[in-house]
């Protein structure tokens, strides 16, 4: 292949680096790659801090020893108590981040996320129902919550489907189901025993307290299986960000692509909810922050995953420490950061639309 | 100059095409042969079904009955990506992804020629560069599409459709939102593409006089049917204008091109003459 230098005025999408290997060629967004590298470093530092800080502080050098499997006197605190919990947080955070990115892309709406279109509520309803009626053991709850999330999403699909998955209808019907399922959950709570209700309440906010390898390992396997699909999604996402007519004219099988992206997003959200409970706002926040950092035309998946993991890990650290020995659920902290950001997005979105409308005239 | 392409050499045809939204039939049993290598312009009053017909020609709308054929094969039987290698379409109001740059958007026109493992080729680079040079937007390459003027933005969209490098190009009112000089610029570009590159173009236009100036083949529609078609010089008459648009007018030769120029009747005046 001849080099692009043959034509001096050759134009290629701005900000992308071209990686070539034989006939294969990949476009990599430079800024997104740089942001991903920085986020990886931040996440690594956050993980070390997470493992070393707490009621009993452990020097970072000792932390690394434990992680690398070398004998250490801190094996119990770091290896048995903190590491499995960190893994759940990392994996669930990353899954929430990607899930939010995919659902926001399909819905073409930065406010759409699994906790708004009913997936989280479906997981809560089934889990809390099982808790209050004493059906199934504690170990089954994560699986029930995955099932609940998928069930809710299936209902939303069925009702939103009319010859295709229309973005606005999908979001509105999702919001409807979210409200309905939330009241079902409330009903279960009032029916149930006081102690169970309190336990359910904690689960519903999303907490990493008491989570460990039992949640981390199945989640890790599920995510490994989904990685090839996420790679597909990263490319397919580009095409659905245009309007329907333009995308179809460019040869995109829009219906299938959108259904595939939405299904993948729902699966990831349900899996993460099953492992960590509905940690609020991570799926909403991570993709939007990622996009603002990378300035890409579509939501960057890798950076969303890294940011999701960062938000959960950095949220759980103070959640664990602030009122020690009492623990705050991490969902409370992510919600405390998330709610103001949501308001900011709403306010800003409004002014941007107004400017765009003004520009059109 | 107004050579109508030979209808027998048509790559894109509609056969007994019936188009409907929900239960409202918009186009009923329409036949059309898009003349190969010519500029075809579809005109007609509002809601006559001209945009609907264009959408069906570009497989954006599934026919209720009948079919659109590309090289004799029903569009419904051709993979959509394959169609996109032969037929480009620019919708009336396309929407760009937020914060996308001009070069990035134009490059998306290459989508039907790419694979996930081959995201950029020399052919892509050549097509994008050429499309941007032709539409005179090379200087805007790194700008965000959001911040461009209406005229610039329309040229960016046309560049994207050009970068797709299809033999057939369908344009739905490409001059809407443009002032008159940009309208002329866009239509001249369309004509140039047709003459220099032999592209077959089908455009829906609002302005009958522009249609008469730029079309090789004019199709006049009313209420979902084709009322008349042919070279503008033979098609556009005062009778047709009354028939299709319900407007009294005088048709005179265009002082510049000699093509038919429709001059509507005298404007309303107060009966008192004041």
TrEMBL record, chain A:
Keyword set, alphabetical order: Cell membrane, Membrane, Transmembrane, Transmembrane helix, Transport
SUPFAM superfamilies per the UniProt record, alphabetical: ABC transporter involved in vitamin B12 uptake, BtuC
CDD domains to which the protein is assigned, alphabetical: TM_ABC_iron-siderophores_like
Predominant location: membrane
Top-rank lineage group of the source organism: Bacteria
Pfam families in the record: FecCD
Protein name per its UniProtKB record: FecCD family ABC transporter permease
Organism the protein comes from: Streptomyces ochraceiscleroticus
Lineage, broadest ranks: Bacteria, Bacillati, Actinomycetota, Actinomycetes, Kitasatosporales
Automatic annotation (TrEMBL), chain B:
Keywords annotated in UniProt: ATP-binding, Cell membrane, Ion transport, Iron, Iron transport, Membrane, Nucleotide-binding, Transport
Location relative to the cell: Cell membrane
Chief localization: membrane
InterPro entries to which the protein is assigned, alphabetical: AAA+_ATPase, ABC_transporter-like_ATP-bd, ABC_transporter-like_CS, P-loop_NTPase, Siderophore_ABC-ATPase
Pfam family, one: ABC_tran
GO MF assignments: ATP binding
Entries under SMART domains matching the protein: AAA
Keyword Iron among UniProt keywords: yes
Keyword Transport annotated: yes
CDD domains: ABC_Iron-Siderophores_B12_Hemin
ABC transporter domain boundaries: 12-248
Origin superkingdom: Bacteria
Membrane topology: Peripheral membrane protein
Name of the protein in question: ABC transporter ATP-binding protein
Native source organism of the sequence: Streptomyces ochraceiscleroticus
Lineage of source species: Bacteria, Bacillati, Actinomycetota, Actinomycetes, Kitasatosporales
């Amino acid at each position: 292949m001849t080099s692009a230098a043959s034509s001096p005025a050759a134009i290629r999408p701005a900000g992308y680096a071209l990686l070539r290997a034989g006939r294969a060629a990949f476009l990599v967004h430079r800024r997104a790659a740089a942001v991903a590298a920085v986020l990886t470093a931040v996440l690594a530092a956050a993980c070390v801090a997470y493992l070393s800080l707490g009621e009993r502080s452990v020097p970072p050098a000792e932390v690394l020893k434990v992680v690398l499997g070398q004998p250490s006197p801190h094996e119990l605190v770091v290896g048995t108590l903190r590491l499995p919990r960190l893994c759940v947080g990392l994996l669930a955070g990353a899954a929430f981040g990607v899930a939010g990115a995919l659902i926001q892309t399909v819905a073409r709406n930065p406010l759409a996320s699994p906790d708004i279109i009913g997936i989280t509520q479906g997981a809560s309803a089934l889990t809390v129902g099982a808790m209050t009626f004493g059906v199934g053991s504690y170990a089954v709850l994560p699986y029930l919550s995955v099932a609940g999330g998928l069930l809710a999403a299936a209902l939303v699909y069925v009702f939103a489907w009319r010859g295709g998955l229309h973005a606005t209808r999908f979001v509105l019907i999702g919001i409807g189901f979210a409200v309905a399922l939330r009241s079902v959950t409330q009903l279960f709570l009032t029916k149930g025993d006081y102690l169970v209700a309190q336990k359910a309440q904690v689960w519903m906010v999303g907490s990493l307290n008491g989570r460990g390898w039992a949640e981390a390992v199945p989640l890790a396997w599920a995510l490994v299986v989904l990685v090839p699909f996420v790679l597909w999604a990263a490319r397919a996402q580009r095409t659905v960000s245009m309007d329907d007519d333009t995308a179809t004219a460019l040869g995109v099988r829009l219906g299938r692509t959108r259904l595939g992206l939405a299904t993948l997003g729902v699966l990831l959200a349900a899996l993460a909810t099953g492992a960590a409970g509905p940690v609020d706002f991570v799926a909403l926040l991570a993709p939007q922050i990622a996009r603002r950092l990378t300035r890409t035309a579509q939501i960057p998946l890798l950076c969303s995953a890294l940011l999701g993991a960062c938000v959960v890990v950095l949220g759980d650290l103070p959640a664990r420490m602030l009122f020690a020995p009492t623990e705050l659920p991490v969902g409370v902290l992510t919600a405390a950061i998330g709610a103001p950001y949501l308001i900011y997005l709403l306010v800003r979105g409004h002014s941007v639309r107004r400017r765009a409308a003004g520009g059109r005239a | 100059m107004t050579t109508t392409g030979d209808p027998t050499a048509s790559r894109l045809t509609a056969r007994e095409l019936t188009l409907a939204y929900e239960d409202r039939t918009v186009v009923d049993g329409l036949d059309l042969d898009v003349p190969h290598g010519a500029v075809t312009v579809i005109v007609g009053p509002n809601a006559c079904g001209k945009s609907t017909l264009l959408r069906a020609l570009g497989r954006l709308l599934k026919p209720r009955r009948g079919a659109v054929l590309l090289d004799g094969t029903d569009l419904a039987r051709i993979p959509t990506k394959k169609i996109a290698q032969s037929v480009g379409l620019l919708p009336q109001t396309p929407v760009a992804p937020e914060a996308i740059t001009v070069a990035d958007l134009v490059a998306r026109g290459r989508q039907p020629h790419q694979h996930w493992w081959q995201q950029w080729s020399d052919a892509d680079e050549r097509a994008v560069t050429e499309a941007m040079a032709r539409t005179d937007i090379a200087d805007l390459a790194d700008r965000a599409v959001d911040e461009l003027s209406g005229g610039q933005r329309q040229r960016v969209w046309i560049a994207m459709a050009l970068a797709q490098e299809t033999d057939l190009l369908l344009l739905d009112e490409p001059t809407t939102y443009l002032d008159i000089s940009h309208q002329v610029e866009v239509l001249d570009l369309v004509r140039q593409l047709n003459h220099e590159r032999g592209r077959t173009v089908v455009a829906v236009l609002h302005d009958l006089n522009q249609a008469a100036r730029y079309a090789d083949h004019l199709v006049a529609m009313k209420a979902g049917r084709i009322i008349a078609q042919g070279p503008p010089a033979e098609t556009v008459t005062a009778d047709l204008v009354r028939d299709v648009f319900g407007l009294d007018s005088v048709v005179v030769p265009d002082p510049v091109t000699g093509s038919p120029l429709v001059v509507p009747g005298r404007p309303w005046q107060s009966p008192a003459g004041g």
